Amino acid sequence: MDGTQLRTCGRCGGRYDWRRSTSSSLKMTYCGVLCERGALGFTLDTLLAGVRVLPLEWKALFAV
Fold first, then answer.
1. Burial of 37 by CB count in 10 Å (0-12 exposed, 13-18 middle, 19+ buried)?
2. How many domains does the chain have?
3. In 3-state terms, what secondary structure has residue 16?
């Protein structure tokens, strides 16, 4: 393993290979999902899981 793949975790400060990080969205920032959740209070995956994209044609149906 060469040093170009190693990153420093934004929360725990540990060195890790970003290709093996369990954090799916922030692999280049956190060594794993636990550090991501600890630093942010949530994971981006759980945040984005609640977002739904609706077709633009439906906009009038949901207008307030």
1. middle
2. 1
3. strand
